[in-house]
Predict the structure.
Amino acid sequence: MVKGILGAAGLAAVMTFGAAGGAQAAMATCPDTAATDDREFSLASADVASIGCYAFGDGNDKLDKLPGFTGTLLDKSDSNSDGTMPLLLGKTDENDLQSGLYGTFSFIVPTGYDTLYISFKSGQGGKKNDGNPDYAAFSVDVAALALSTLSFNWAIGSGHEDSPYTAFNAIDSDLNQALSHVSVYGDPSVVPLPAAGWFLLTALVGLAGTRWLNKGRAAA
């Protein structure tokens, strides 16, 4: 069950923090609640201007099943067959991006996409105290980026902490079930129809209307 789909409105959760060297980086938490008994996901990057909390909920992170979602799955860290292109970097074995409570990762920026969605799914692994939500997805605007790769810091925890590089304030908590997998979705860029195309489309509509009128007159 989806607990929240924030979309563009979720950009209210976007924050910036001082990264190493004084650079400003984008950072967001999702679902960005103050409750310490909820699981929180964090994503930060110095390579992008903004990160938003897009969706979160119980169960698996199948964003393509959400109402109104138009993106497609591009890559998934625990499968070589899911998705349409290998984007995630640093995968040297099956455990990469499939465990832990915090870390870093990079991926290749695909062409033809304005927005990417990065989702994190926690494992359920027999923990006695199951926190919620089970997954969180972040939206990343890549329309104006000139970089070939992006790097991110991520964390799963409960409560809040100023630093995105740690697993918040309860690393050993049962709420902090370790990462199961990371998925990357992409929303294709909208290619505007050239002016000549609009003229052709208008002409075809006009021609169809003329033929319909002529048929009506002939029938009369």
Remarks:
- Confidence is low (pLDDT under 50) at residues 1-22, 160-172.
- The CA atoms of residues 62 and 179 lie 16 Å apart.
- DSSP finds one helix and eleven strands in the chain.
